[in-house]
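> example.struct
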């Protein structure tokens, strides 16, 4: 009689569970890469917040002043310019300063409009509102040729 070929087979043995630890080397590489990217992102976020801190303080200070304090608002703009760009840019003659201020704020400032700020009494609510707008729209990374 012929022998049944299936008689030589053994019972099915279920494999043992595959351990998930220790991880394969590629997973260590992925974890290290994601961790590095996370740390770099957090450092860049912190640096960006520190960079914008002076502008945030200037906006907060400008909100405490009234529109009649045009000179104080102008001083805040000069301080912002000195902080983010240079002292030379902030101390330009009035004609060049009005051009630079127009570039930095996006608003259009003229020589005649800023001239009353350098006189004894300069309570101009319209100019104060425009200067407050210039503080909030102040460009931090605009290239300016001094």
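> example.seq
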């Amino acid at each position: 009689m012929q022998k049944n070929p299936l008689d030589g087979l053994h019972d099915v043995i279920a494999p043992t569970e595959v351990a998930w630890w220790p991880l394969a080397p590629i997973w260590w590489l992925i974890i290290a890469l994601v961790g590095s990217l996370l740390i770099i992102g957090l450092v860049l976020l912190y640096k960006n917040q520190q960079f914008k801190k002076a502008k945030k303080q200037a906006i907060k200070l400008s909100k405490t002043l009234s529109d009649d304090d045009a000179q104080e608002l102008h001083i805040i703009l000069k301080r912002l310019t000195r902080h983010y760009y240079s002292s030379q840019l902030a101390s330009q003659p009035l004609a060049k300063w009005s051009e630079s201020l127009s570039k930095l704020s996006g608003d259009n400032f003229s020589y005649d409009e800023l001239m009353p700020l350098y006189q004894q009494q300069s309570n101009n609510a319209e100019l104060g509102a425009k200067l407050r707008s210039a503080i909030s729209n102040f460009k931090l990374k605009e290239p300016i040729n001094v």
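> remarks
The CA atoms of residues 43 and 49 lie 10 Å apart.
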